[in-house]
Design brief:
With 102 residues, the chain is mainly alpha-helical. The chain contains 5 helices and 2 strands, in the order ααββααα. The chain has a single domain, classed as Herpes Virus-1 (2-Layer Sandwich).
């Protein structure tokens, strides 16, 4: 698991979670409260508090979840997109969120 987080990492994770579930957004369900999913180590290096996705309980640990028991990670990524692609999308959403604050 990732190391203890810094103040900046906590702020980043709060900002990511505030976006709502990225999968629900992509499916057109609108805003759904999200928890943080730390992306895997296959992306280079270990898990960090910077590479996180906002996922609702169902898409995180539920029947349709990346960390759930019903489907494997590969099946989840085939259905919803890769962690890498979703991280890119989340980064764009964060940039848009920051732009709108100005």
């Amino acid at each position: 698991m990732a190391k203890n987080r810094t103040k900046a990492e906590s702020k980043h994770m709060d900002n990511v979670a505030s976006l709502g579930c990225v999968i629900c957004l992509n499916l057109g369900y609108g805003y759904s409260p999200a928890t943080i999913h730390h992306c895997g180590t296959h992306m280079g290096g270990g898990r960090t508090h910077q590479r996180v996705l906002p996922l609702c309980p169902e898409h995180h640990q539920g029947r349709e979840g990346i960390d759930g028991k019903a489907m494997g990670k590969r099946q989840w990524e085939m259905k919803y997109g890769t962690e890498r692609d979703l991280l890119s999308q989340v980064e764009l959403l964060l940039q848009e969120q920051e732009r709108l604050k100005v």
